[in-house]
Amino acid sequence: MIYDFPLNEKSRTYLRLESLFSQIGDNLEQELPWGHIACFKAIFDLQELLERGDLRADLIKDLERLGQRLNRWAALPEADLEQIDHMQTDIVSLSRQLLSSPRPGARLKEDRLLGSIRQRFSIPGGLCAFDVPQLHHWLAQPHARRLPQMRGWLADITLMIDAIRMLLRLWRESGAFTDKVAINGFYQDVAEGAELIRIRLEHSQECYPTLSGHKNRFALRFLPASDSAIGDVTFQLACC
């Protein structure tokens, strides 16, 4: 199993957006109405993240930095120049489209139905028919009518998610896993210039990692998933 830990607020936001869009994708095609309830919850969480700052500007800057990194990789003897050229083309295309696109999430904010039910999702048990009759009326529609509308809500976010997925994929691929040992479940190290720390751990070890740190320094502590004590833990680590 692989755990991804962010080393700054920006990469933390990217990972959260990636996770939320995966949740939306997993539930979007479900025909049962309650599958779309899970979609709404993820959409509103995603909307809240988008409203916290200008993610589009940050993403364009990170894509530019990624392009510069690819230029350095192209100078290496073992570089796959065709693959790098293809990625550079994708980066330039995504950056240009992001510059000319509307603010991600604007369509969600303007939608009448979403605006009328959003606050109810923060109330425990607040999705009964007497709380949100407009939602239950919408859910009673055939799946073939609900699905295109949900895809329309997400249309102006898809481009941003494509860019985030590309960025995270190349970050992840830039770090090679190496074998490490956490003495009595504890390990610390430096990660100069890294955005993510990745931990690969066998599930059979009955423990899980937690990370504390910021920017260049970090500490890992492995905690037991059962009542057994933690000894030395072997794992693999990648700084990306």
TrEMBL record:
InterPro entries tied to this protein: ZapD, ZapD_C, ZapD_sf
Segments crossing the lipid bilayer: none
Compartment(s) where it occurs, according to its Swiss-Prot or TrEMBL record: Cytoplasm
Keyword Cell cycle: yes
Keywords per UniProt: Cell cycle, Cell division, Cytoplasm, Septation
BP-aspect Gene Ontology terms: division septum assembly; FtsZ-dependent cytokinesis
Location, primary (coarse class): cytoplasm
Domain of life: Bacteria
Pfam families: ZapD
GO terms for cellular component: cell division site; cytoplasm
The keyword Cytoplasm belongs to this UniProt entry's keyword annotation: yes
Similarity section: Belongs to the ZapD family.
Purpose of the protein: Cell division factor that enhances FtsZ-ring assembly. Directly interacts with FtsZ and promotes bundling of FtsZ protofilaments, with a reduction in FtsZ GTPase activity.
Quaternary structure (record): Interacts with FtsZ.
Protein name, UniProt field: Cell division protein ZapD
Gene it is expressed from: zapD
